[in-house]
Predict the structure.
Amino acid sequence: MIKRKKIFDVLNADDPTNCVLIKGWVRTRRDSKDFSFIELNDGSCLKNIQIIVDNTINNYGEISKLSTGSAVSVKGKVVESQGKGQRWEVRAETMDVISTAPESFPLQKKRHSDEYLRTIAHLRPRTNKYGAVFRIRSEVSYAVHRFFRNRGFSYIHTPVLTGSDCEGAGDLFRVTTLNLEAPPVAKGKIDYTKDFFGKEANLTVSGQLSAEMFALSLGDVYTFGPTFRAENSNTSRHVSEFWMIEPEMAFCDLEENISFAEALLKYMINHVKDNCGDDLNLFANFVDKTLDETLDNILSSDFERLQYIDAIDLLERSGKKFEYAPAFGNDLQTEHERYLTEKYFKKPVVIFNYPKDIKPFYMRLNDDNKTVAAMDVLVPRIGEIIGGSQREERLDMLEKRMDEMGLLKDNYWWYLDSRRFGSVPHSGFGLGFERFMMLVTGVSNIRDVIPFPRTPNNLDF
């Protein structure tokens, strides 16, 4: 029995293989007098492989009617290609038709708009662009796990369902089994003690709080999974379901945290450049002509480190008219972040020591009692790609911050307990996986780097 080969392996072989079995989908078919030439792709790489089918094959009549999108199984010899663009092609000995796509198949040999392809998200990975996007996404996911494993981190599976709000922003998706048409009521409010968990439950916005618990036991840990935010932002930078890489490190201060974030970002970019050459070239040639320059700039730069107060001062003195005027006490907008990275420093920038009033409760209060040990990593074209902090390890200060922000400490009793029993300085951050995918591909809309985007009024597929 002949083992099936991936097209990637066949095209990149040093020597031809006497006989191979390949299965895939027809991209195009053209006929000559005695042959059919079929371009076949199985998703393993950007390039198709050419199949030459002689009209003496028993089912040639069926093969000659194959259309784009049809699936076939081919057994044949690998020979040197007579055409340009590839080294090997397959001369078919047998071809079995697995399924036939109709002539109205939505993907034809032409360039389709991203907007149209989002309406057929179940088929868009068969296009060159999106096949490349999701192969890179897969490869980067592997790189993430490899990076942390090589540094002795433990991988933690944190809950998707939670009773806590990590960010304190309130943009949460509620999860309930109650009858919404006639929910139980107590004292004029919905009685969540009758719900499945006996309390309000939500989809998580971050695995950080849970990861902290394990960092204070196992040392260095990370979580990499889906997170959810019910923020009604219908922009090219926001989705409601997204993936986060969140390391948490015991005995780690803010400076070490920043250095680690820089190392992770550079590692992921290097891995893509080393392992996704053909796919990356597609984006450099057809999506963003400055992509290679942007990525090389990040890799070769020592990230600029700038306190928040100095960043605001720099922006105010820039002479540039921003849509949102920079001011102390306000968070930086994307236009501010891109000015700093693309115009002023022309490289990645780390902003740190933010005002405490614009940051969550868990960030460590600095000695000035006005700022917290928070940091954001900004990169050209994207803006913020990483956000993190040194965590508040002091129980009394943590309780004070929670009181200031109106958080019910009873809901976080377990989090507070971690500061009672062997608390240590620790830090961590979150890297938005889709933001990284936008950076490394040059794709400008976050909907186009995630398989099935979840946005306001969009829950298809």
